[in-house]
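Tokens as discussed.
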């Protein structure tokens, strides 16, 4: 019994350390993609971020998708569980969870506008035609389903939907990370200037996924914690 109590006492501290490491990882990833996007104009025949040409419009897609899912979606997951003893603490966590998801949604819509805008300029089909595109479409369908389910939980009675919402949210998150990595592979095959950055970012995404999975599993399996 003493060992079990000690485990419950030390678990939040371990998870707290992991959460700080996770934030260092996602901040590093966001900095890397921002460095690429805002320095791409230094590459010959490549425009800067903008709205006038296909390439300039498209740069909004990786920038906003990476920020949305790497930063805001990660923080939304971190806020997903809370201690049930304090109602005010639960409400604060829930508000932060919803706020982070709103920011994620804004980034997703902006990222979609970037890719659809670039394809419209080039008069290309909006339908996916690459592994990254098909995986991204799957992730987005599940993401919007998850957002709808979360909204129904927030506005109505949760019933038995809470656990499924958490399962779907975590699944969408990992699929989104896989989609980002697939996009890096696709883009680095076309542009050698992006390869060095992509090589450093892809392993970091694997580390990010492991850290989030560890954090989520430890908090949601602790007896004194429950989903929001």
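Sequence:
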């Amino acid at each position: 019994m003493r060992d079990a109590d000690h485990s419950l006492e030390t678990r939040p501290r371990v998870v707290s350390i992991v959460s700080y490491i996770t934030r260092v990882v996602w901040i590093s990833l966001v900095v890397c993609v921002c460095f690429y996007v805002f320095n791409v104009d230094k590459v010959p025949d490549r425009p800067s971020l903008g709205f006038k040409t296909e390439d300039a419009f498209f740069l909004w897609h990786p920038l906003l998708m990476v920020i949305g899912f790497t930063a805001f979606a990660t923080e939304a997951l971190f806020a997903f569980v809370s201690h049930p003893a304090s109602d005010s603490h639960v409400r604060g966590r829930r508000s932060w969870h919803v706020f982070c998801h709103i920011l994620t949604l804004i980034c997703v819509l902006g990222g979609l506008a970037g890719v659809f805008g670039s394809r419209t300029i080039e008069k290309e089909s909006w339908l996916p035609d690459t592994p990254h595109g098909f995986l991204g479409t799957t992730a987005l369908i599940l993401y919007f389903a998850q957002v709808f389910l979360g909204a129904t939980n927030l506005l109505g009675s949760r019933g038995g939907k809470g656990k499924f919402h958490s399962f779907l949210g975590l699944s969408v998150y990992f699929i989104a990370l896989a989609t980002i990595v697939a996009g890096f592979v696709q883009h680095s095959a076309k542009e050698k200037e992006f390869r060095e950055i992509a090589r450093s970012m892809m392993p970091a995404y694997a580390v990010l996924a492991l850290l989030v999975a560890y954090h989520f599993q430890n908090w949601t399996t602790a007896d004194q914690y429950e989903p929001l």
